[in-house]
Specification:
alpha/beta; eight-stranded mixed beta sheet; Rossmann fold; 39% helix; 16% strand; 237 residues
Length: 237
Amino acid sequence: MNRRELLRAAVLAVPLLALSRVEANPPKTPPLKIGVIGAGSLGGTVGRLWVGAGHEVMFSSRHPEELVPMAKRLGSRASVGTAAEAAAFGDVILFAVPYDALPVLGRDLAFALRGKVVLDACNPGPGSTTALTKNAEADGVAETSAKLLPGTRYVRVFNAVNATSISSSARRTSAKLGVPLASDDAKAIEVATQLVRDVGSEPVVVGGLDAARGFQRRGPGFVADTTAPKLRKLLGL
């Protein structure tokens, strides 16, 4: 079995490890195939850095033709497709779309997403009064999103940091940006933590999905854009 096959097996395996082991034993990740659904500021920035780290990335948006020049600049490891094509392409999928788009995407892409590690960077908009936003804020955004993406190995990550802070951290050799993340799936957390490191930031595992309230909007960790030690202090870790 080659390195890619080994990693794909790890991504698809049933979770066996406790969350406490995640940061103590970070995995050494060979290149992954990643689908980015929503290649705006956040999705585009993270995706470009993943390409630079050696991963294969398919970028998608409502207007994928607009992404072609960027993909050409990035080289052979970058490609462009529809949301459905990106979902089918990736071993790992990043969602960075408007929050109200998640119900439709979760329904339409359910088959392609099943069993895959899904990284959710979507936030209800500030001032939004939709029923979905009200439910998410009452029940927890992470828990609500996980229900909208059923059958996936869901991780809440990249929702609480700015794209500019991620870019800045990638250029630094110290004082890396702390990126909070949470999941009920220990193996998915392992994949996500390495992908955070691959963009030049430092992962801060907060716990299960219920703990993600600490870095949703109005939580102490939301857009703190600070170092990992300071973020841990803000979150009481």
